[in-house]
Amino acid sequence: MKKVDAKELKENSTKKAKLALEDYKKFALKGNVMDLAIGMVMGSAFTAIVNSIVESLISPLIGALTSNVDLSDLSFTIKGVSFGYGAVLNSIISFLIISIVLFIVVKALTKANKKQEIKEDVTTKECPYCCSTIPIKATRCPNCTSQLETEEK
Which structural domain, as residue segments, surrounds residue 144? Predict the structure, then answer.
């Protein structure tokens, strides 16, 4: 049996703790984790805005169109138990607004990304004879030495 002294045990424990801390830092500071954290904060702030819009603007507008019925106060009672379906309607309206806004944002981002992809300069082309990749300005293929037609722009 090998005898382990306290100093060596402490050094090994310290090394393991440092390695574990380094691994945790690598994990926590990865782009994916940070993006997720930022997304969660932004999502909760966005939810507060949408809830405010629903409660302050849309619900009163619907109430004005339906003879001042406040959706949050709508309920029915069965055997003395009150079911507040107005709050559910407010939640459904909030969900619809959030999903529509997110749909519009994703569509705009997708469109912007497509435009960016199109704008990337094309620097190569394919030789029609040997199918190798050659510079866009080449007039002769360096691989098969075929004379290439110049494109008029």
Answer: 121-153
